[in-house]
Amino acid sequence: MAKGFFAKLQIGLAKTRDKFLWGMDNVFYDDAFVDEEFYEELEEILIMADIGINATSRIIDKLRAQVKEQGIIHRAKCKELLIQNIREQMRTDGDDYSFESKKTVIFIIGVNGVGKTTTVGKLASIYRNKGKKVIIAAADTYRAAATEQLQAWAERAQTPIITGREGGDPASVIYDATSAFKARDCDILIVDTAGRLHNKKNLMDELAKMNRVIDREFPDAVRETWVVLDATTGQNALNQAREFNEVANLTGIVLTKMDGTAKGGIAIAVCSELNIPVKFIGVGEGMEDLDRFNAEEFMNALFETEEKTDIQ
Ligand code: GDP
Questions:
Q1: Which of 8, 118, 153 to mutate to test ligand 1, by most ligand atoms within 8 A of the CB atom?
Q2: DSSP state, residue 32
Q3: In the predicted model, what is the mean pLDDT of residues 16-35?
Q4: pLDDT band (50, 70, 90) for residue 201
Q5: Which of 63-67, 201-205, 209-213 holds the top average pLDDT?
Q6: For residue 200, how far is its CA from the centre of ligand 1 (angstroms)?
């Protein structure tokens, strides 16, 4: 995570932090004892901070066990343990970015308005800056406006884009895109889909059809399918991810609009409850406002500690 981005994230998380720390201050006061009321209050704070019910239960259960084990009597002693337990919920395993060194197709899905198109443009720019040859496929053929918007982003990201005609078959856009991909020996194909959930079966069929084209034309490609979630929608975003996962076998999540939301805790819920890695995080509308997600740095930004590492 670049320094400037970390600073933006830190500022963006201010409302989440305020809500969270204000709640904590009210619970961890002076010499108050750990009692049942303490756990209930904590639970409420975590749920209010959008950390999610399951993650909250896990965090509190662990704290209860630690309190018992270590014979803790005063609430103040629990604060660091609590933060540590929240951090643990963010652990992800595996190399979530190994696809970057291979020929890859990334499908971007998500409901309208979450930031899909914007994310496609930003991703194209990120990978182009890393020296990758990128192509964008505008497979949302339902709305002419969507294609136009994406064309504008492609231009800004200086990335070639393959479009279809309005109302055309998204799979034929994919066909054209894979041909262009091979002809130009590209590295990453980013597909902006109409991926909405109005009709699960339609979405499933549409994705399957696009995937079949890739199976046939480009069998060695690594396939990534990422859902874009708007962090400002809190628990709703979590539900969307679950629903999309039922139809699309998600390999990643992009969390947008982390700037200025009070619901930033949703990142913790998403990591803890879905077992799908958050790959990127958005903190604004500009080209530079997307970066890889790093759980440790997210927690540092949330709790305002200084440690940070730069990853390219
Ligand atoms: P789509 O309908 O899913 O393709 O969404 P768009 O890409 O058109 O984005 C919807 C709106 O969200 C636009 O006004 C974007 O500028 C805005 N947006 C996208 N990502 C972010 C972000 O990380 N932060 C903020 N503040 N706005 C964003």
A1: 118
A2: P
A3: 86
A4: confident
A5: 63-67
A6: 23
